[in-house]
Amino acid sequence: MQVKESKRSVELRPKTVLGKFIHIIIRNCEESIEQIGLMLMGELWQSVYLSIKDIIALSVLFRVPGVLFFWITKENFTDFTSCMDESPLSASFYACFVIISSDLSLWIVLASRTASRFFTALFIRRKKL
Questions:
Q1: What is the tens place of the pLDDT at every residue in 72-103?
Q2: CB neighbourhood size of 83 (10 A)
């Protein structure tokens, strides 16, 4: 895995034995999945693959506040109606709205990125024909 950083490439390598083992397993799975995707979908696979990576990264990023809040307060908020059960003067009332809003923004971002990649790939493919 390579991370580009200001015009030079930095390679991230795990240092521990367990880290190296997990890195090898993930690399092998990733290569297999990429080959299968290319065989099944062709050029469209790159767009699908990047969308899946975005979904995973953004889901982890947006789930962190909810997990931390659940870990601290042992309350789980799933929708805006559960926020109404809280007192408007409590901190959990506002935290609930922040957590639910972050989940909503996750889906908005994912849907827009996936749609933009799809339409970009569609228009590029149409121009080639």
A1: 777 777 777 777 877 888 777 887 888 788 77
A2: 20
